[in-house]
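The freezer alarm interrupted the setup, so I double-checked each line after restarting. Inputs confirmed:
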Amino acid sequence: MDYLATKYLRPRKIPSTACSGCGLGQIHKKVVKAIDELGLDIGDVIWGTGIGCAGRQTFATWKGDNFAGTHGRVYALATGLRLALPPDKKIILTVGDGDAFGIGFNHLLNCARRNVDLTIIVCDNLGYMSTGGQYGWTTPEGYRTDSSPYGMWEPNWMQGGRDVLNILREAGATFLARHTSIEGQEAVESIKKAILNKGFSLVHMPYPCVTNFAERALGSRRPAVMYRWFKERTIKLNEKVDEKALGDIYFRTGIYHDASNSRPEFAETLRSRVAEIQRRFR
Amino acid sequence: MRRTLDTGNAAITEGAIIAGCRVFAGYPITPATEIAENMSRRLPQVGGYYLQAEDELAALHICIGASLGGLKAMTATSGPGYILYADPYGWAIGSEIPVVIVNAQRVGPVSGITGAPGQGEFYLSRYPTQGGNFETIVLAPNSVQEAFTLTVEAFYLAERFRTPVTLLADQLVTDGWETLILPETEEEIQAMGLKVIPRRINEGPEFYPATDEIDIPPVVLGHNTGAACSDWTPTAEGYDTEEVEWQHKHAYRLIYKIRNHKDLITRYEAYFLEDDPEVILVSYGSPSRVVKSAVKAAREKGLKVGGLRLISLWPFPDEIFTKTAKYLSVELNYDGQLVREVQRAMPKGSEVHFMGKCGELPTVAELMELIEALLKGQPLKAKPWEMEAW
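Predicted 3D structure, all chains:
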């Protein structure tokens, strides 16, 4: 077994319950690697998840404390938890694209506004794959899914001049990055920065789903087809390309916004204000 | 003791603080807004946190998150917010997280009439979430003073049973001004019969044992106990499972930890029940104040009338319906909710009748009219509140 898995993950949860060929494990490993490289122990991290592929497959894999919230509400749950936990404990959430950018988007934005100290890894398989493959809010426009048999014609959060990370930046997030799961150490470095930011950090990580997405959208369940599709669309932020010529969805990867430790953290603010009021009333 | 004139909203706030509540997350809603306002002022004074959430879904989730981190938490709302609690309420039931939920009932359906009392969430408080396979604990105060004591009680039961407890009040109880006596010392708290237990921490590895036992510490994260809690069916260690056997065990626990310890929950008041009542009025919350007056007035006239005032609503106290009589359920709704449970629980040979009002209390005169008709065996006059089917 992988040394990181031996050190941090529960043997009971290995091998993963994800489909063979799924890219989720690539993200899972990068998060654990980032934790390891930061020298964090099992007791330093509380691992939370949402619902769907990302939530179910990563829940209770962490040797320490684990929780899984209701669909889309784990951000609110984690806000309450953040208040109760000592500030040095890290809360890391692995959630899906539907959870973060669909059903939970309101709570996610409010978390960013408050700058709650959370590290949110959005594991994005480009739609609702756990339920069989319906389109979601990052599904590439025009692509076929089980619920867009004629091609997805709803505008998504990724194309047409929109970027979900811009919305989160406006909302007050203090660290934002995007990496596809097929990237290497650069993704780990971003996750490390996200964990170190005492505030709202989010890393958007699109990853390949060979079972449902690839089957409908690309007409093949061969991992090579799906991984090649991802590789062609993973373009570093500073890389010069003719974006118009690409003519399809692509993922610009790197750090989008690093305002780490520049805004007061929510729980910290509450703690200090409450301490001040309490002194006055004693 | 401190004697004040205050509202039910203030009483609930002070009860929560005495019970050890240190987090309140809420969303403004009439007639529960003043609980949030009072909490925002009072909590920081005792080292607690007030949060205004983006909606009621977030409000209860924040409370549960705080509770999961080891802090006692409460939220308060009215009907339109209570229905939004469905999602986190289920999570808290399933993961067995102690939390207190106040519902100041107003007139429905939907937004209805905001500043008037109703009793429309009697059944919703029994089934506040989907999925079944659980029992709930619900307490219903009928005065400002009782709003205080039952809030402390709600926290106590939430800790012992590891479950959300709803305080099902109504607008008259929360907005009403009455004398409120507050204890100021530990001795006074005890003298009032109030019990407070601090949060305990489950050390694992059995976080969800298949037993009906109570007083098992809840999951608290951040202590590296290896806890796992989720919305999925848990194994004893908290792992998500699709195995039916574990679902049976989990359901058994959620149902029978409450059913098998019902005696610790059931609270009620009986009026003239041992004096051969032919008619028994059943009620809870603010209408029970008028009902009590009507029963007393009827007895003064020599009429054989009794009363049952429910203080705990769920689990429903079937066992207190021992007398064969003509039961009259007096409620603040026109559809008849409590009456259905009375019909189910009453002994064979009994009759059941219903009087509904909404937005205002019935009067003693109205109740007397009904009592006299029932005693004479006359049919109740056809009025909007009389449901023929009953």
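Quick read of the result. Residues 270 and 325 of chain B are 14 Å apart (CA to CA).
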